[in-house]
Structure formats: structure tokens, C-alpha cells
Amino acid sequence: MTERPTRVVTDSMIGLDMPDIAVWSERVTVVLGQNPGPFTGPGTNTYLIGTGARPLLLDTGQGVPQYLPLLERGLFETRGGEAPEQIVLTHGHADHIGGVAGIRARFGSMPVAKKPWDKLDGDLDVVPVDEGAEIRTDGATLQALWTPGHAWDHLCWYMPEERALFTGDVVLGAGTTVIPPDGDLADYLNSLRRLLELDVAVIYPAHGPAIHTPREKIESYLAHRALRDQQILDGLGNGPQDVATLVRRIYVDVPEFLHAAAAMSVNAHLRKLEREGVVARDGEKWELRK
Ligand SMILES: [Zn+2]
Questions:
Q1: What is the pLDDT of residue 252?
Q2: How far apart are the C-alpha atoms of 148 and 189, rounded to whole Å?
Q3: Under 8 Å between Cβ of 97 and 103
Q4: What distance in Å separates the CA atoms of residue 79 and residue 116, rounded to the nearest whole number?
Q5: pLDDT tens, position by position, 98-120
Q6: What is the value of pTM for the model shown?
Q7: Which residues surround the ion ligand 1 when the cut-off is CB under 5 Å?
Q8: How far is the centre of ligand 1, averaged over its atoms, from the C-alpha of 275 (Å)?
Q9: Longest CA pairwise span in the chain (Å)
Q10: Residue 28 and residue 190 in contact, taking contact as beta carbons nearer than 8 Å
Q11: What is the Rg, in whole angstroms, of the alpha carbon atoms belonging to the chain?
Q12: What number is the average pLDDT over the span 131-160?
């Protein structure tokens, strides 16, 4: 019997160090959201985009007070500016949308462009944008691509001037994306396949470092998910099992504190396999369909 690899994506967010402010290109400065954690790694990357003194701000972090002086410094030192022109969001999760109020309080009111989703937007006034939308600023254009799966409202943003893709949480600088209970793994895989069709030189993710091998990265994500499917089916080949048992079986090399996140992932796979008619649920346990 041949050995199957147990992991395709072998890097991890744990212990990853990122600078507070860094210039990644002529058009892109990254400012770290100051919100490290098990799901955010070193924290959320927020991006100042454009060559002018009023750049766009892509994503806003979680609303951590220490972030605001860093954003101000990043604006001034790397773009010669004092305030962003407007905010653009990849999606409505708290570590992306949470900084909006603080930024408006400090830099003045500004529009927030986002694909609307009542579930996450709360009472935030957004300028609705969707697939195909284009946002321009000095020296840069952002084009919206609807990429649901991690979150239904998720937009990736393509910047043709650098053939750069801001992937939000769809592709990360290290590790893999979480598919939360209201996410959809089948949608997510379709979103990844769609990104593969673009002409991309660099990925600027919402967490972790820039990715200069975009195709390899996206293909490794797809392979990783296919492997997880297979591991789950192999596990269930031994008889009906609950999610915790499957997690212990599959995530042998993952520390225990990440098992809750792993269970979320296994659940996302099981929901997809159930819809494909391959597995069925019996109470707490899952089994192969005969
Ligand atoms: Zn997210």
C-alpha cells in the first residue's frame, strides 16, 4: 500500500511574524491590524492602495485602538497623506469590518464599499458593490470578484496595474482558510477555481505575507481540500463516527487548541459530501452512504 500524504499545505500561521507597517509595492502599503489570534495569525492585513496622498484603505482590522496611530503613520510616511479616500471591504467578518467606526472617528467620515449582507453589516451604511464593480484612485484600480464560500459576501479585489489580487480570507499567506458554519465549501472551491483563471502575479492576502507563486498556492489549496475529503471518506470506511473522532484521526500533527477550528473544517467537508450524496448523518455520527 502506498503512503498517502497527510497534509498538502504544510505552512502555518502560528508564530508568524509580520511588520506593523511595510511597503510592498509602489502602490501598496500594508498596516497590521494589531489583532493576533488563532484565527487571524499575526493579525489582519489592512492595505493602503494607490500612488496619491488619499489612497484607498482595503479592510480595517478588528477595531483595536493601537492600530489607529500605526495607520496614521503608514499614511504619512509611505504615502505622504493624512486620511484614506474611502474604505473598501473584502467581507463583513469582525476582523475586517471592526475598525470602520474608529477610522471614521479619527480621519473623518468616508464611504465604505462592500457587498451588502444584512447578517454581518449590522447598521453600517455601506456603498453597495458587487461582481464587476470598479473603484479607482490615483495610480490604482480595484475590480470586484464575488468569491463566496468563506463568507457569502466575500469580494476579492483585482488590481490590473500590478496584476495583483487582494484575496481577503479566500487565500491566506500561510495555513488554510476556515469555512465557518454559515460558509459553503462547494462555493469556496468554485471561487478558488475561478481565481485560477485570472492573470495574477502576486496575491496580497488578508493574513500573512504576500504570495509570489499564486497558481501553486491556489492549486495546493484545492489539493488540500481533495485530500481532506478523501481522509474523511477513509475514516468513515471504518464505520460510523462523530466529528471529534474524525478530527483526532485526521489532524494527528495539529496541536489540540486548534481542534475546534479543525472540527469546523471537517463539518464543512461533511456538509459538502452529504449534498453530494456520499455520506449521511445519523444523530451525532456520520456514515458512508451505501
Ligand atoms: Zn473572514
A1: 86
A2: 9
A3: no
A4: 29
A5: 999 999 999 999 999 999 999 99
A6: 0.94
A7: 93, 169
A8: 24
A9: 65
A10: no
A11: 20
A12: 98
